[in-house]
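Action item from last week, closing it out:
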Amino acid sequence: MGMLQEFKDFALKGNVVDMAVGVVIGGAFGKIISSLVGDIIMPAVGMVTGGSDFSALKYVIQKGQEASGEGDAAIAAVEEVAISYGAFINTAIDFLIIAAAIFMAVKVMNSMKKKEEAAPKAPAEDVTLLREIRDSLAK
């Protein structure tokens, strides 16, 4: 079997295709959750906490400096160096909401699977026929 044929067999297996669909949907779901957190939840949290915007929170290590002067006396611009812990807080909240949503989805799927397994299945047609024959012979 050639390598191209092996790759085709691998890529077209149901599990790989299902995984690819899951990754694409997961990416879209992540964008929705990020928008939910950034555009709806964090402004509400900021309002409750006195109007603070978490994404703007940072610890400045080195202040930025604009370029000044001309010629040999020119001073190059220096960018601000800061630890943006507010962005980290937003990302952590994103993660917690995504994790909770996935947990709930898995919980619903597991409960549906348990109900499906617990539901009594009708006996096969041949078993029903054999039972009827047994009952008529017993009479």
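Closing note: The chain has a mean pLDDT of 80.
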